[in-house]
Design brief:
The complex is a heterotrimer. Helices cover 29% and strands 24% of the residues of chain A. Chain A is of the alpha/beta class. The longest helix of chain A is centred in the N-terminal third of the chain and has 16 residues. The two termini of chain A are 36 Å apart. Chain B has a single domain, classed as Folate-binding superfamily (Folate-binding fold). Chain B is 9% helix and 34% strand. Chain B contains one helix and six strands, in the order βββαβββ. In chain B, the strands form two sheets. In chain B, strands 3-4-5-6 form a four-stranded antiparallel beta sheet, with no helix packed on it. By secondary structure, chain C is an alpha+beta fold. In chain C, strand 8, helix 5 and strand 9 form a beta-alpha-beta unit. In chain C, helix 12 crosses helix 14 and helix 18 packs across helix 23. The model of chain C has no long low-confidence stretch (mean pLDDT 95). Classes of the chains: A alpha/beta, B mainly beta, C alpha+beta. At the A-C interface, helix 1, helix 3, helix 5, helix 7 and helix 9 of A face strand 6, helix 3, helix 4, helix 12 and helix 13 of C.
Chain lengths: 417, 98, 1003
């Protein structure tokens, strides 16, 4: 792998950039792999990367139905934060945050992780209690998160209106300064390049159609649109399509797939310094390096694989955005799109074993998976390499839906991820 | 925005409705006799199909009635809507009208 | 600025109505019917902006909504004050009128001299994706140094600084047929669809007048007359039909599920005389039975070195400026083309007085009749030539061209001096809306374009948007589409108009052949995002092979024009490099909106007081008059406290809570959700929905009810009264009312249809006035008729019907304070009057109005829980110490089975207890975490959290409630609670802090 650096960039500039090599190969699938990762999004590619780098497992294939990073990885609003309430979630997302903080250097790929701060606004008494509960819990878990008064919110995010006349006045906010955004595509590409350089085969346009099992029921490989490929272990990391893939394997999952929409405005000069989330009115907003306001809306109410939702969802989000930021009323929506998010009953992911020996699953990230990408890949690589969950992902088992030991961040906080 | 054919009121815009998730998941008659795993399945496991999905809708800003619908989750086209308690119609997905 | 390039006659401008706009502080002159783009060109001003990345000078490329380069900041109503300016307006679609103030963007210090242009020199470094390869060291520099610099350089115009001063409206419409586009195909479709006089037809077009491409056309004839005569006749026919609505200036931007098409209409931006208050734009949400898409096509630029120089324009746009706006974009025009249609531009420009020559990439043999027509007109045609590069910087000054030898080699170059280039690389059908409707695109090799394939909705395309370019065929196709949309047969309508033949056909070229080092030259594919052919080659070289990857890596097609002019060139280029058929590279997914849409239009009226309108109780007016401070609770606003002069919240709440314990308080509880459960099986229904038993509740009795979700967690609570054998009056939490009703209806209709029960929301029918305190009865007594208020006749937790102030009343003897209490339910319209009467009478007894804050303190003093505060969706009845309310006898109720799951009965669950700080004056934070030992290392184990915390003047100290692991077994133990600065000590107690004196609620 040729290292990226200012030096190599300048060298290439003088020769018309003819010397850059492919960032990842386009190999034919081998007959068999030690591990097959189903799904070439950020989580799947990160899993492959850490299998190779942390566990030395390099006989790995990532099978992607379309093009890597083309699903939710490339469709989300790129918010990264770790200020979750419960110990289990805090552990998982903070693990990811620590990896984010060195990710560009680790991957030798600038993922533009920008710790601009994530400010979550409290609009009613319930929000205030809930956010303070988060702030205190985070402090004891070693995660930065601080409570700001309305005036401090305004100072941190000058475009914000804190007028008491607002329909949902700003009563304060919880700020995680280490939170921020990253360049979503670069995360997929950076992991792909890193994994590829260590021998991982990234196989695009390869749809998984079924599971091959040994007579004892354990995993033997997968049937794909490009033939049968053997594997000792298989990890499904298919986000919104997890239910479809697992269905082909004969398993039902406690997930439902729903549309989630987002939009960007036309690009403008820097006007918005951080990330603001407002759960009571349900909107997220930040400004990309390119200058677009990036705005996340809510989910539609029904199961759908259409990657398209209703405009009423977007309209309502913009109602809220313009209430908080009335000067954006004349900004224009440039592009809107939808993703398919897989939502679990407790809005927390499932990361671990399945009833089939050798088959593992990493899904259910709902609307908040991007921020977990490095951490998710890291612990799932451990799970696939050792056959057992890492202590960080052990609580995120399928079994919790039997015992009732849910990790219900949404119910506990009315906080969208 | 979906256009939903309420069996009682006719076609109305989605904003008048609330989606109640998958249909035809009957509450067990005697929950106390159900094993934890099966109860967990009843509570949390859904078919989540890529294709025709039987689902419940409430015409909340209308007649107030719950009813069932078959909808293709790929095209979002409704295949049928029918009264609560009626059996799932045996309709092929190609009859879906967008 | 005068208008040296304005033609002496012609055009669809009104020379009797001159106007001017301010352009970068200079006066720009023009006429009604002009756009800012046509005014700029009339004045000879091509330079209209600086590009996104390299800050290269850019001019006007197009005459329509596909313009990528000429982006302006426009202050639409500078004369009316701030709040009317927005950035990134395409000069080609800003209709000119007096008092517009427009400015160019993305330059410093000026349009002519832009320091940012240094980026152009650094462009060898700033290739596609360069930022992924550098700026990584040192690590902290990304946030602090590199990113801020990149951000300042990026972006286009400046965002508005102040609140939008305009208003917007919203309209829902239904029609049988929606026709999008009023060019020849759309007009024909609308004529055919509306012919029966009954089918409701809406015809929408983004332009200011119907006609589409015919507006640019002075040569075509329809039925022997100028094409625009046919347009005028068609429009007047449609206008006369009552079943037709024509919407000019209306862009269909989004095609959603089930033929839901969203359009935005420009209502007032183009009107200098617009009255204040007239909406700026209107959002049309159309639900169409059938849709006809007649959205036309976009011309492709040619890709050659410096093809972005001002003065280089699309050929059809040059024609449009000449014919429609009577502006000659240059005196010396080179038409560079691989398409027949550009020949008409050459002919029209020559007729208008320009010196014109044609450079055609095609060989003579590949040309059609256009070639001879041009030659006959005396135009020099260089067939089989390529364009090597453009000369000039802020304005094109020449074009270096060369013949391409049969072996592909570049022949001898020659420079053609010019001040304008009209280029055409062929045409791309505008399939955006079709693609949004999720129809399947099909690649047509003949047309070198994606065209509509299988429809996914009740929709069909007509005319150029499906690759039909000849005018006669376009009209015929439009008529057929209109007929098919109404189900009429093709033979049903009258004759098809006859039209003259059009110059059609083109040869796809992607990137023009050159002998220059392709890795060095800047030949632009995406003008706005500064993406060059070499950027795309680099992306492919690095393994980005799908068009989605190429787009994301290079940003081609991601600009505000959404790739209207660039997508096909990019796709073709990638396919060429990979030597794959074009569809194998992938199709671009088109997403709403077709052109950018203002947030204001999408919001419509949902702003200020119409954004989530506030629900107010019947007593809200009184509360406001009496100085209440309000808080939002769900969609309601509720009086939080009633401060007297000089009082803060703490003081007011201390006074209000004391008054309730010592005299009497009056509280507006109208927001409580109320549901009437009626029917022979009402009690059985209640029994199944609630955890506790209802069958034996006597008529006239009240009971506190606890409701679970099926997963066993507390969902809602409230007092329920049995008014009759078959009638229950249920109350819910304020926020819970809608979902509780839905939850009840769900079970009733879907699980227990055998039960004969009706549910009715009565939240808004009853105003609820709570009188709480030892003197409550005294206040109420004088107004009550038909009810004996004595303890014996009307004990705690009972209900009676009668009259208060002569108004029918449901009177509850209940308490949420522990004190003697009544809740007076009267019809909402009488709420304020009854409240006032009680308040006045109460004056004799020291009555005090109290708000939600005092209500919370009072209930906490006696240990009552608030669902949503003590509970959070993860709390069971036993966690709250309410096991007594969970029937052990009932075989089943909603949530019962879940309570038996392993984790629900596990040891160590958090249980509700009280917390008393060691320092009685210290009020801990609600939401604070509780630990055993604050000296442990981080991460520190937490054993609970504080749910409620107050200063209680009745207790003379602070009180708090908390959920603590095994808390009920730890009464008396000391724990540590987080504070903003550290920890404080508190002792676990029972979750009840105040002993009610005198006649208590529970007496």
């Amino acid at each position: 792998m040729r290292r990226f650096s200012l030096k190599s960039l300048l060298q290439e500039a003088s020769s018309g950039h003819q010397g850059w090599e492919r960032q990842w190969r386009a190999p034919e699938p081998k007959k068999e792999y030690d591990v097959i990762v189903v799904g070439g999004g950020g989580h799947g590619l990160a899993t492959a990367y850490y299998l190779a780098t942390v566990h030395g497992v390099t006989n790995v294939a990532v099978l992607e139905k379309g093009w890597i990073g083309g699903g939710n990885t490339g469709r989300n609003t790129t918010i990264v934060r770790s200020n979750y309430l419960f110990d289990e979630s805090a552990g998982l997302y903070e693990h990811a945050m620590k990896l984010w903080e060195g990710l560009s250097q680790e991957l030798n790929y600038n993922v533009m992780f920008s710790q601009r701060g994530v400010l979550m606004l409290a609009h009613n008494h319930h929000d205030v209690i809930s956010f303070k509960r988060h702030v205190y819990a985070n402090r004891l878990n070693g995660i930065d998160n601080e409570w700001l008064s309305p005036e401090e919110c305004k100072a941190y995010c000058p475009p914000l209106s804190i007028s008491p006349e607002l329909r949902y006045p700003v009563l304060g906010g919880a700020l995680q300064r280490r939170g921020g955004t990253a360049r979503h595509d670069a995360v997929a590409w950076g992991y792909a390049r890193g994994a590829d350089a260590r021998g991982v085969d990234i196989i695009q346009n390869c749809e998984v159609l079924g599971l091959k099992r040994h007579p004892d029921g354990s995993v033997a490989g997968v049937e794909t649109s490009r033939g049968t490929i053997g594997a000792k272990r298989v990890g499904v990391v298919a986000a919104g399509h997890t239910g479809v893939v697992m269905g082909r394997f004969g398993l039902r999952m406690p997930v439902e797939s729903v549309p989630l929409q987002a939009l960007v405005s036309e690009p403008v000069k820097p006007v918005f310094p951080c990330v603001v989330m407002s759960n009571a009115v349900h909107a997220y907003i930040s400004q990309s390096d390119k200058g677009e306001l990036v705005i996340g809306a809510g989910t539609d109410q029904y199961v759908s694989y259409s990657q398209q939702g209703g405009i009423q969802i977007i309209n309502h989000t913009l109602d809220a955005i313009c209430e908080l930021f009335p000067q954006f009323g004349r900004m224009r929506m440039l592009r809107s799109w939808g993703g398919i998010v897989d939502v679990t009953p407790d809005r927390s992911p499932i990361l671990g074993k399945t009833p089939i020996e050798g088959l593992f699953v990493n899904c259910g990230w709902g609307t908040g998976g991007f921020k977990a990408t490095p951490g998710s890949g890291h612990v799932f690589a451990h799970t696939l390499a050792t056959g057992e969950p890492h202590k960080i992902n052990a609580p995120f088992s399928l079994d919790r839906f039997r015992t009732g030991r849910l990790i219900d961040e949404a119910a506990a906080a009315a906080v969208a991820h | 925005m979906l256009l939903i054919d309420c069996p009682y009121c006719g076609k109305r815009p989605e904003v008048e409705f609330h989606c109640g998730g998958e249909a035809h998941i009957a509450r067990p008659e005697t929950p106390a006799e159900i094993a934890d795993a099966d109860w967990g399945s009843f509570l949390y496991y859904r078919t989540n199909p890529k294709g025709v999905h039987a689902e419940r809708w409430l015409h909340g800003h209308g007649c107030g009635r719950w009813f069932n619908a078959l909808r293709d989750t790929v095209s979002d086209a409704f295949v049928a809507t029918y009264e609560m308690g009626a059996p799932r119609p045996d309709v092929a997905p190609e009859n879906a009208k967008a | 600025m005068s208008q040296p390039f304005r033609l002496p006659s012609g055009g669809r401008i009104d020379r009797k109505r001159p106007l001017s706009v301010s352009f970068n502080g200079k006066r720009l002159e023009g006429f009604a019917g002009d756009t800012v783009a046509s005014m700029l060109l009339a004045s000879g001003q091509h330079l209209a902006g600086r590009s996104f990345k390299y800050h290269r000078p850019r001019g006007i490329l197009s005459h329509g909504s596909d313009e990528p380069s000429a982006l302006l900041s426009v202050d639409w109503r500078a004369d009316r004050g701030p709040g009317y300016r927005d950035p990134n307006n395409r000069a080609s679609v800003v209709e000119a009128r007096d008092s517009l103030v427009v400015k160019t963007q993305n330059h410093w210090p000026s349009l002519e001299t832009d320091i940012g242009a240094v980026n152009d020199l650094l462009s060898p470094v700033f290739v596609a994706g360069f930022y992924y390869k550098t700026f990584m060291w040192p690590r902290t520099f990304w946030d602090k140094v590199y990113e801020p610099v990149i951000r300042r350089a990026a972006g286009l115009g400046e965002a508005p600084e102040v609140k939008d001063a305009d208003r917007y409206s919203n309209r829902h419409a239904h029609c049988d047929v929606l026709v999008v586009g009023a060019g020849p195909a759309g007009l024909a479709a609308a004529l055919a669809a509306s012919a029966d006089g009954e089918k409701r037809v809406i015809l929408a077009d983004e332009g200011l007048e119907p006609g589409g491409a015919l507006l640019n056309d002075v040569t075509s004839k329809i039925d022997g007359k100028p094409a625009m005569d046919w347009v005028a006749e068609s429009v007047s026919t449609l206008d006369a039909r009552e079943n037709v609505v024509i919407l000019p200036r209306t862009t269909a931007f989004g095609y959603y599920n089930h033929n839901h098409v969203c359009m935005v209409e420009k209502v007032s931006d183009h009107r200098a005389d617009a009255p204040e208050g007239l909406a700026r734009e209107r959002l049309w949400q159309v639900r169409a039975g059938e849709v006809v898409l007649a959205t036309g096509s976009h011309e492709r630029p040619l890709v050659f070195e410096n093809n972005d120089r001002p003065g280089i324009m699309l050929a059809e746009s040059v024609r449009a400026f000449v014919n429609r706006w009577a502006v000659l974009p240059g005196n010396e025009i080179v038409v560079a083309t691989s398409s027949a249609s550009a020949y008409q531009t050459a002919l029209d420009a020559k007729n208008a007085g320009a010196r014109v020559s044609i450079v055609d990439i095609r060989l003579e043999a590949d040309c059609g009749p256009e070639l001879q027509t041009a030659k006959d007109a005396g135009i020099t045609v260089r067939s089989g030539h390529t364009v090597i590069r453009a000369l000039g910087k802020k304005r094109v000054s020449g074009l270096v061209v060369a013949p391409i030898d049969p072996d592909g080699a570049i022949g001898e170059k020659q420079t053609l001096a010019c001040d304008c280039v009209a280029m055409s690389g062929g045409w791309t059908p505008s399939v955006h809306l079709f693609s949004q409707s999720r129809g399947k695109l099909r690649f047509d090799v003949e047309l070198d374009a994606f065209v509509p394939g299988t429809s996914a909705q009740a929709e069909r395309s007509a005319g150029a948007c499906r690759g039909i370019y000849d005018l006669a065929a376009v009209i015929a196709d439009g008529l057929a589409a209109g007929r098919s949309a109404t189900g009429a047969t093709d033979t049903a309508a009258g004759s098809t108009p006859q039209a003259t033949a059009s110059f059609t056909g083109f040869q796809p070229v992607r990137v023009l052949p050159t002998d220059a080092d392709a890795s060095k030259v800047k030949a632009f594919v995406d003008f706005q995002n500064d993406v060059t052919a070499k950027d795309i080659r680099l992306a492919v070289r690095e393994g980005f092979e799908s068009i989605e990857h190429v787009k994301r890596y290079t940003t081609t097609g991601m600009a505000t024009d959404q790739g209207k002019t660039s997508n096909m060139n990019a796709l073709g280029l990638v396919a060429g490099i990979l030597d794959r058929p074009l569809p194998a590279v992938g199709t671009t997914t088109f997403r709403p909106p077709y052109t950018p849409v203002s947030f204001g239009a999408l919001i419509g009226p949902a702003r200020d007081e119409l954004f989530d309108p506030v629900r107010k109780t019947p007593i809200d007016g009184w509360a406001e008059k009496n100085g209440a401070v309000f808080e939002p609770v769900a969609l309601w606003r509720r009086a939080k406290y009633f401060p007297q002069a000089g009082e803060d919240m703490h003081g007011a709440v201390a006074r209000e809570t004391k008054a309730v314990r010592n005299a009497v308080g009056i509280f507006d509880a109208s927001t409580l959700g109320k549901i009437e459960v009626v029917g022979p099986d009402a009690a059985e229904f209640m029994n199944r929905i609630y955890t506790n038993a209802w069958l034996k509740l006597k008529v006239g009795g009240c009971r506190y009810g606890l409701m679970l979700r099926e997963d066993g967690f507390v969902y809602d609570d409230g007092v329920v009264a049995r008014l009759a054998e078959d009638r229950f009056h249920v109350t819910t939490t304020t926020g819970g009312a809608p979902r509780v009703l839905r939850h009840m209806e769900d079970y009733l209709q879907t699980e227990w249809p055998d039960l004969d029960v009706f549910l009715t929301s009565i939240t808004e029918q009853w105003a609820v006035i709570a009188l709480q305190g030892p003197k409550a009865r005294k206040v109420l007594e004088p107004f009550v008729s038909g009810i004996d208020l004595s303890e014996e006749a009307f004990p705690h937790m009972t209900v009676q019907s009668g009259f208060v102030c002569g108004v029918p009343c449901r009177l509850f003897r209940v308490s949420f304070t522990g004190e003697l209490g009544f809740e007076v339910n009267v019809p909402a319209d009488y709420g304020e009057a009854v409240w006032k009467a009680l308040y006045e009478e109460g004056g004799k007894h020291g009555i005090t109005a109290y708000g939600t804050e005092a209500m919370h303190v009072l209930r906490a003093e006696v240990g009552y829980v608030v669902v949503g505060q003590e509970t959070d969706g993860t709390v069971t009845p036993d966690d709250l110490g309410l096991s007594g309310l969970v029937s052990k006898v009932k075989a089943d109720f909603v949530g019962k089975r879940s309570l038996a799951r392993p984790d629900m009965v596990a040891e160590g669950r958090r249980q509700l207890v009280g917390l008393l700080t060691k320092n009685p004056d210290e009020v801990i934070d609600e939401g604070a975490q509780v630990v055993d030992d604050p000296h442990r290392p981080i991460p520190m184990r937490m054993i609970g959290h504080v749910t409620s915390s107050y200063a209680s003047s009745n207790c003379g100290r602070s009180i708090a409630m908390a959920l603590i692991e095994g808390g009920r077994g730890r009464i008396g133990e000391t724990v540590h609670v987080t504070t903003p600065g550290g920890f404080t000590e508190a002792v676990i107690s029972k979750a009840a802090f105040y002993e009610v004196k005198g006649e208590t609620a529970d007496a």
